[in-house]
Amino acid sequence: MKIGIFGTGMVGSTIGSKLVSLGHQVKMGSRTSDNKKAIDWVKANGANASHGTFSDAASFGEIIFNCTSGFGSIEAIGSAGDANLKEKILIDIANPLDFSKGMPPSLFVCNTDSLGEQIQSKFPYLKVVKTLNTVNCSVMVNPSLVPGEHDLFLCGNDDVAKEKVKKILTNWFGWKTVIDLGDITNARATEMLLPIWVRLFGKFQTPNFNFKIVK
């Protein structure tokens, strides 16, 4: 499958490398076509890896992963162009973290709105599925880094898109339990897990942990 990645940071490179290792063609997009991080990532990942602008990645990908920082997500997606995005699934991993006052970060949107909702509202022709944003990027693509059973969350307005994403999570990344919370308004809840995630990271001094829902 051809997949577009928005973002050249740790999340984008980890997701992209995993997808390439599975035999998919991946184009990493950034604001400019000569982004050094993207160039280095391509060199490290071989013939199925390529890079370009956000527009290039969106045009290339059958599915798109949004791995940009929360503050930059709307601008990045918008710069990709409507024609390149229309009717595509966008897997939104970004979180609305605000580091302007240092650590721990706050959320620049929460309670009555979410970044996932803002993306879906701004780009109604996209099929936005929010997931993977509650775990570290290494755990995203290798859940076995956390011993035992643990859970991942998913939400979005399009049931068919959610089912396709769920298969990606289980068949490609190895997740055993993916909980569908419902429509995209549930991104408020998963994004608001980040303040406790950050504090647990500080407590444990490792990002390799996750939540397990017991009922």
Structure description:
With 215 residues, this protein is an alpha/beta fold. It has one domain: NAD(P)-binding Rossmann-like Domain (Rossmann fold, 3-Layer(aba) Sandwich). The chain is 39% helix and 20% strand. It has ten helices and ten strands. It has helices spanning 10-21, 36-45, 54-60, 73-79, 82-85, 115-122, 137-141, 159-172, 187-191, 194-204; strands spanning 2-6, 25-30, 49-53, 63-66, 89-92, 97-98, 106-107, 127-131, 152-156, 178-182. An eight-stranded mixed sheet has the order 3-2-1-4-5-8-9-10, with helices on both faces. A two-stranded antiparallel sheet has the order 6-7. The longest helix is centred in the C-terminal third of the chain and has 14 residues, at 159-172. It is globular. The N and C termini lie far apart (37 Å). The mean pLDDT is 97.
Describe the protein's topology.
Elements: E1 2-6, H1 10-21, E2 25-30, H2 36-45, E3 49-53, H3 54-60, E4 63-66, H4 73-79, H5 82-85, E5 89-92, E6 97-98, E7 106-107, H6 115-122, E8 127-131, H7 137-141, E9 152-156, H8 159-172, E10 178-182, H9 187-191, H10 194-204
Parallel strand pairs: 1-2, 1-4, 2-3, 4-5, 5-8, 9-10
Antiparallel strand pairs: 6-7, 8-9
What string gives the helices and strands in order?
Answer: EHEHEHEHHEEEHEHEHEHH
Structural class by helix and strand composition: alpha/beta
The figure for the number of domains is 1
Give helix % range. 25-40%
Largest sheet: 8 strands, mixed
Which regions contain 5 or more consecutive residues with pLDDT less than 50? none
Separation of the first and last Cα atoms: 37 Å
Spatial order of the strands forming the largest sheet: 3-2-1-4-5-8-9-10
The gross shape turns out to be globular
CATH level 3 topology:
Rossmann fold
Structure annotation, total helices = 10
DSSP strand (E) fraction?
15-25%
Mean pLDDT: 97
CATH superfamily: NAD(P)-binding Rossmann-like Domain
At CATH's second level, what is the architecture? 3-Layer(aba) Sandwich
